[in-house]
Amino acid sequence: MTTDMYVKVGQASPGTGSEGVWADLKGNRRGEVCIVDFFTEMALEGRTYQVRAGTVTTALTGDEAITDTAAEMCVDSAEGVTFIPFEVMITWNNLGGDALECAAKSVGAASTAGTAFVPLPRYAGGIAARSTARVQAAGSVTVAAELDTTTRQHFVYAQEFVSDDDSEAEPWNPVLWVPKLPPVCKGVSCFYVQVASATTGPGYFAHIDFAELRTVNVT
Questions:
Q1: For 97-111, what is each residue's pLDDT tens digit?
Q2: Total-model pTM
Q3: 48-214 under CATH 2.60.120, yes or no
Q4: What is the 3-state secondary structure (H, E, C) of 5-24?
């Protein structure tokens, strides 16, 4: 037995419904169903935010070697809130010393020091985030000590190799992390980024993009 499938055309005038009511699937004039990926949907609902470092031509200065408990920027959440980091970008502005390195990690404990940063709604005019954030140069954001039993590592980039003539290849620029399986930071937790180079901290611009939900809507 064959069952025909139909989708309502909503190409020129897509509509919105009310909570708790049935809505037609959105299709185009060719009969193709329009599917929105999860993070685009979160953005349309006003549930995505950005934490950034550096403005215009003024870069932030990183740490002198990645150091335990020291980060450049972070996102924190409390009980009842879950956030999902889905993009980190780091652009080198000046190299500082050699041996460039950067990393992103998360842990189930909030940061304890650093300059507060109010997460920016990626939906213009959107509501404020429930999560909090910090941004401060030279590893001045204090996070929980890293342990292989509690700290999750999401990416590490290190350019540690120097040639015989004491020169290095140009670094990857920018460093872009868009995970296929992003971490889910539930309840009291912290996602943080570390940026450094040996002897002298590098200048950089960076951002963390994340989606945020009430935990009751997740589990």
A1: 778 899 999 999 999
A2: 0.88
A3: yes
A4: CCCEECCCCCCCCCCCCCCC
